[in-house]
Structures are given as C-alpha cells and as structure tokens.
C-alpha cells in the first residue's frame, strides 16, 4: 500500500517527539517533513531529543528539522499534517494547511470550539468524524482539521464513557495530579516545582468540562450537541515527568457495586478495536486490582501491542458505597492525551475513507 505523505509541526516539542516515534515505520503514513520554528531549524532529531522513556531510533537520529512553511508542504504534496504547535501559532498555520487541502490532526486548543470541527476520541465519538465533510465544503481545497482534547480530559473521558453508558452517571468531581511534561518543554520553572505542588493550571478546569461535554455529546443534523455531563475539576501540577493521575468521584442513589463497575470498564471496547487500528490498545481501559495502582512511574506506558504503548488508560482503587463511587485514573499525557490521540484519529480517518 502507498503510504500517505505526512508532516509533523512542532517537531522539537514534547508532542512532536512523540509523533516522530509513533509515526516511524507506520503502515499508513510516511513522515517527509519535521517542522518547527527558526530556533530549531537545521538541528537533527538527535540534537533536540528529550524523551527519557523511548530511545530515538537510529534511522531518525540524523533527520533534520526545517521551518514551518505551509506553501512548501502543499507544493511537496503533503497530505496529512500532525500538529504539536502551541495554540498561539496553531490557529493560522493549521487553518492554512486545511485550506491547501491537507488533513490536519491537531493537539492545540485553537480549533476545538469551531462549530464544524470535532474533538475526536475514536473509542468515544467516532461518529463525530463525519463533521469534517461540512468543514471541507468551506475550505478552498477541501482539507480539514480534526482536534484531540486537552490531555487530562482525554483520559477522563475514556474512563467515564463506559460508566455513563451503563449506569447513567452524569455528575463527576475530579482532582488532577498533572505531570510537568503537560506544560511542554522547558515548561514550568524548576524552582516552582521542587518540593511543591501548583494548585492552578490556566483554563484547565474550564476545558475539562466544556471539552468533556462536546466529546461525550452527539453529532446530529450537522451540529454538535453537548452531553449533559458535568465535570467539576480541581487541577494541580505535580513533580512527575509523564502521566496525569486523576481522582474521580461520583454520587447517585443505588450506585452499582464494585464488581459491576469493574466488569463494565474491563469489557469496554469500541471502533478502533473493531478495526484493529495500528495504535489502538487492545484494551482501552486497564483495571488494576492492587491497592497502590495506578502510578505514573509504573503505569503511564500501559497498552499493547507495542505500537499502542501509552495508549491505554489505567483505572484502580475502585471504591463504592450505596450512593458513591471513587477511583483513580491515569493517562499518559503526551501519548494518549497528545500525539497518540492524533495518530489514532488519523488512522481512523484513513480506514473510514475520510482522507
Ligand atoms: N504536553 C502535553 O502533555 C500536551 C498534551 C495535549 C496537547 N498538548 C498541546 O500540544 C501542543 C504542543 O505542546 P508541547 O507540550 O509539545 O509544547 P512544546 O514542548 O513547547 O513544543 C512546541 C513546539 O512548537 C514549535 N513552535 C513554537 N513556536 C513556533 C512557531 N512560531 N512556528 C513554528 N513552530 C513553533 C516549537 O519549536 P521550537 O522548539 O523551534 O521553538 C516546538 O517544536 C500545544 O498546543 C499543547 O497545548 C500538549
């Protein structure tokens, strides 16, 4: 099969490096351009590599980063763009790529609230992909943008979806313990994080609710319809490298027992598993029975097969009473909550014939 020509934007960043790793030797896409700002232009991937848990593949080490010029990508026939740009830059650049006919899979928040642009998580709302047909009609050359969600809401939504469907839960409280890599590189100043926890992440709590409602809602008659779900979040930044841990609380009369909750989470499977997408985890939610799991250090890279490492969400410490449910949930913020989410979205688009 001929692979689709792809470019990575924000190649030198935390998300961009994950893209380079996940897209290396990919069955559907071939990366022909690693792009970043003038600060990185001319550097090799070996020179900018910061990931500690994944070794840079020797075949990638010598590849050079170039500037970000939409017209060059269009001229070179790039069909698919994976974007790890900061939101301040992503808005115009991603729009430009879509206008030039490219399919853009973005991590930035710039287009998440556009009325014809999905926040796609294939296990939850694969039907939302059809919104790109509306987008295409207003684009000069029929490209489109698909976004993925804020990293903490991605993991949460994957864990909540089976519970919402099975038990009608709608009101959730969540406290997050978010990793430093969630703020990009170099991110939060180290003196602020040593022996410390920061109890505020700008706009994060608002995004968890508004994005959660769009993701978990429907797409009907050409419009997104918000879910009635209500997520009240308290977000903190903690001194952890990768992996957002979240403590989730829900109340309702006649709460199902722990065995029922475990069975629903453990049995969750959806469209990516049905299609055996290359980066889809065999089990989107892994339930750990141990009293001290999930932990960022031990569980962030959960997920199999190999290409889906870091794509599973881990749930543990499930506790129920007659009217309450509590559990911890862990998501790898730069894989499932970042680059991996975009790669899975692109795989779905490819297999559903949307590209
Ligand atoms: N980190 C996460 O956990 C996470 C999760 C989900 C979504 N996101 C979102 O993903 C995006 C990237 O996050 P990140 O953590 O990877 O950030 P990052 O580490 O700060 O990387 C940003 C990247 O964008 C490039 N860039 C900056 N300004 C540019 C410009 N004017 N033109 C071209 N390239 C430019 C940088 O290149 P230089 O190195 O050359 O400056 C770098 O490659 C953000 O929108 C973020 O909100 C992040």
Secondary-structure map:
Elements: E1 4-9, H1 14-23, E2 29-35, H2 45-48, H3 58-61, E3 65-66, H4 70-75, E4 80-83, H5 87-99, E5 103-106, H6 122-125, H7 132-138, E6 144-147, H8 151-167, E7 171-178, H9 190-193, H10 204-216, E8 218-220, E9 223-225, E10 230-237, E11 244-251, H11 258-266, H12 271-274, E12 285-288, H13 296-299, E13 313-320, E14 324-331, H14 335-351
Parallel strand pairs: 1-2, 1-4, 2-3, 4-5, 5-6, 7-10, 12-13
Antiparallel strand pairs: 7-11, 8-9, 11-14, 13-14
Helix pairs in contact: 1-14, 8-10, 8-14
NADP nicotinamide-adenine-dinucleotide phosphate is lined by residues 10-16, 36-37, 39-40, 68, 84-87, 89-90, 107-108, 151, 181-182, 184-185, 333-334, 337-338.
């Amino acid at each position: 099969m001929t692979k689709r020509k792809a470019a990575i934007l924000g190649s030198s960043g935390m998300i961009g490096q994950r893209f380079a790793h996940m897209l290396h030797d990919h069955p559907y896409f071939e990366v022909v351009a690693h792009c970043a700002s003038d600060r990185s232009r001319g550097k090799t991937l070996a020179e900018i590599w910061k990931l500690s848990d994944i070794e840079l593949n020797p075949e990638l080490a010598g590849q050079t980063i170039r500037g970000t010029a939409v017209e060059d990508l269009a001229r070179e026939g790039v069909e698919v763009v994976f974007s790890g740009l900061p939101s301040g830059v992503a808005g115009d650049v991603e729009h430009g790529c879509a206008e030039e006919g490219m399919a853009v899979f973005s991590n930035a928040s710039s287009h998440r609230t556009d009325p014809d642009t999905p926040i796609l998580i294939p296990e939850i709302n694969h039907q939302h992909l059809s919104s790109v047909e509306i987008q295409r009609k207003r684009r000069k050359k029929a490209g489109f943008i698909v976004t993925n969600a804020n990293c903490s809401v991605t993991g949460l939504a994957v864990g909540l979806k089976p519970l919402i469907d099975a038990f009608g839960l709608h009101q959730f409280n969540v406290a997050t313990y978010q990793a430093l890599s969630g703020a990009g590189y170099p991110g939060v100043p180290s003196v602020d994080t040593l022996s410390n926890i920061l109890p505020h992440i700008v706009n994060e709590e608002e995004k968890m609710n508004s994005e959660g409602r769009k993701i978990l809602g429907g797409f009907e008659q050409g419009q997104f319809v918000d879910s009635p779900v209500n997520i009240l979040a308290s977000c903190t930044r903690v001194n952890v490298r990768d992996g957002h841990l979240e403590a989730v609380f829900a109340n309702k009369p006649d709460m199902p027992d722990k065995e029922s909750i475990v069975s629903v989470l453990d049995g969750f499977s959806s469209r990516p598993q049905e299609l055996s997408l290359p980066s889809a985890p065999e089990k989107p939610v892994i339930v750990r029975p141990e009293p001290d799991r999930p932990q960022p250090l031990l569980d962030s890279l959960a997920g199999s097969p190999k290409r889906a490492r870091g794509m599973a969400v881990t749930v543990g410490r499930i506790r129920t009473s007659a009217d309450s449910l509590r559990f911890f949930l862990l998501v790898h913020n730069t894989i499932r909550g970042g680059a991996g989410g975009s790669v899975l979205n692109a795989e779905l688009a490819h297999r559903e014939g949307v590209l």
